[in-house]
Structure formats: C-alpha cells, structure tokens
Amino acid sequence: MARYNKIFGGPVQENMPQVHEAICDTAVLPGTLVVRTAGKFVPAVAASKGRMFVVQDNYLALKDVDTAWLAGDRIIGMELIDELLFRGRVPTATSITQDAPLSANAAGKLIPATTGTFVVAFANETYNNISGADQLVSVRAAKGYTFA
C-alpha cells in the first residue's frame, strides 16, 4: 500500500496570479489586455470574449513595465481573476474614474465601457491620462465579463 494517496502535496489554496505563456505576433506593452486565439496571444478588442489576460512585465529579462515585449516573443499573460488587483494600460487622453466599468479598445488598452461592449474590469482609482503616453492604472477584473 502506498504511503501517500495524492500526488499534489500543497499548498491547498490557489496560487495567485494564474499565469499563461504563449507567442504574441505583435509587440505589446505590459498591462495590455490579450486573448488567446489559435494558441497565440493577440491584443483584446471591445468584442473579445472568453478568458482575458493582462500582459506581465518581462521580469525574466529584467525589463521594466514600459518596455514592450517584441513581436514573436513568448509572453506571460496573467489571467484576470476578479478577486485580484492588476495594473492595466490606459491610452493617452483617456480619463478614468474610480469604479467605472472598462472595456478594451482595438489595441488591448482599457477605456471607459460604452453600450454594447464587454466590461472586463472596473477602475480602482481615478486617473486622467494627460501624460502623452499610455499609463498603468489599478483595476479589478469584472466577474464574468458583462455588457455595458
């Protein structure tokens, strides 16, 4: 008789965050929303459905959050889980208010949700991006992705 009756020994809680790796054919900045299509990551758009991921910084190569992953790289995507906070990329000239519903634009950046778009996250802070560059804002994933 075996000494143990289970292969997995712990810990018993879910490891956070859940990360996935896949090739991305386009260059992407950390904080960009992506979805997996045909085994590859592609930037999310307003109509994207299914599991959503936020691109992690390339800590393996000691890169910062403003250094893009190159086209063709195997990137790390963190699965948007609603009980966790993430930093999502907001395009320049975009104003975000705390608790506002957010969706993805055509480049996988977070923008205020409009009627008919999927809400993928809620803003955890108020930020008016007049910096001239995409910026990271604190967000919490929406449960089950809903329509605005």
Give an overview of the whole structure.
By secondary structure, the chain is mainly β. It contains no helices and twelve strands. It has a single domain, classed as Beta Barrel (Virus Head Decoration Protein, Chain: A), CATH 2.40.300. The strands form three sheets. It has a five-stranded antiparallel β-sheet with strand order 1-5-4-2-3, with no helix packed on it. Strands 6-12-10-8-9 form a five-stranded antiparallel β-sheet, with no helix packed on it. Strands 7-11 form a two-stranded antiparallel sheet. The mean pLDDT is 88.
Q: How would you summarize this macromolecular structure in one to three sentences?
A:
The protein is an all-beta fold. The protein has strands at 19-23, 33-37, 40-43, 53-55, 74-79, 85-90, 94-96, 101-104, 110-112, 118-123, 127-129, 135-147.
Fold blueprint:
Layout: E1 19-23, E2 33-37, E3 40-43, E4 53-55, E5 74-79, E6 85-90, E7 94-96, E8 101-104, E9 110-112, E10 118-123, E11 127-129, E12 135-147
Antiparallel strand pairs: 1-5, 2-3, 2-4, 4-5, 6-12, 7-11, 8-9, 8-10, 10-12
Question: What number of domains?
Answer: 1
Please outline the major beta sheet.
Answer: 5 strands, antiparallel
Going across the biggest sheet, name each strand in turn. 1-5-4-2-3
The first-to-last residue Cα distance is 57 Å
What order do the SSEs take from the amino end to the carboxyl end, as H and E?
A: EEEEEEEEEEEE
Rg from Cα: 17 Å
Mean pLDDT: 88
- Overall 3D shape: globular
Attribute tags:
single chain, 148 residues, mainly beta, Virus Head Decoration Protein, Chain: A, five-stranded antiparallel β-sheet, 12 strands, globular
